[in-house]
Write a structure and sequence with these properties.
With 173 residues, the chain is mainly alpha-helical. It has one domain. 76% of the residues lie in helices and 0% in strands. It is built from five helices and no strands.
C-alpha cells in the first residue's frame, strides 16, 4: 500500500501549519525586537522608557514560544537523548518512537485542555496584566490552542507510515 495519499494531505496541512505558526511566531519576535529597540532608545536618549514594556515582552514571549511549539514538534527539533539508539534493534526503536509520540500527544492534549479551562476562568474573572490592564484570557486560550495543535502533530507523527520515518531520519530506523 502506497503512502502517497497520506503524504499529499499532510503536506498541505504542514504548509498551512508552517505558514500560520511561522508568521505568528516571527511577528511576535519582531515586535519584541522593535519594542526592546525603542524602549532602550527611549531610556538612553530621552531618559524615558515605554510604560509596560516588560508586560508586553512577556506576553509576546508567550506567543513566540507557544506558536513555535507545533513546528518544533513536527520537525522533530526537540532536545533528544539518542546515544543508545545505535545499540537498539529497529523494532525497539519503532516502538520507542511510537511510545514517545503517544506520550507527547497525550500530555500536550491534556495541557491544552487545562489551559483552555484556565483561559475560561481568566475570562470569567476579568483577569488582566498589572500595569497595562491587558486581558490575559486570549493569551491563555492561545496557549491552550497551540498545545492542542502540538498534540495533534504528535498524533499525526504517530500515525505516519514507517517508510516516511526512515525517510525523515535518513534511513536510520
Amino acid at each position: 500500500m502506497s503512502a502517497a495519499p497520506f503524504r499529499d494531505w499532510t503536506s498541505d496541512l504542514n504548509k498551512i501549519l508552517d505558514t500560520a505558526c511561522g508568521l505568528l511566531s516571527a511577528a511576535a519576535l519582531f515586535a519584541i525586537m522593535a519594542l526592546t529597540f525603542f524602549d532602550v532608545g527611549g531610556r538612553k536618549l530621552l531618559a524615558n522608557s515605554i510604560p509596560g514594556s516588560l508586560e508586553l515582552t512577556e506576553l509576546l514571549m508567550v506567543v513566540v514560544i507557544f506558536s513555535a511549539l507545533p513546528l518544533v514538534s513536527r520537525r522533530g527539533e526537540h532536545v533528544v537523548f539518542d546515544s543508545l539508539d545505535a545499540y537498539l534493534p529497529t523494532g525497539l526503536k519503532r516502538l520507542q518512537r511510537a511510545a514517545v509520540q503517544l506520550l507527547c500527544a497525550l500530555v500536550m492534549l491534556a495541557l491544552g485542555y487545562l489551559m483552555w479551562r484556565a483561559g475560561a476562568d481568566f475570562a470569567a474573572s476579568g483577569e488582566t496584566t498589572a500595569q497595562l490592564q491587558i486581558a490575559k484570557a486570549p493569551f491563555v486560550y492561545g496557549m491552550g490552542a497551540c498545545c492542542v495543535v502540538t498534540g495533534l502533530v504528535h498524533l499525526s507523527l504517530l500515525l505516519r507510515p514507517a517508510a516516511q520515518d526512515e525517510e525523515a531520519e535518513g534511513g536510520a530506523l
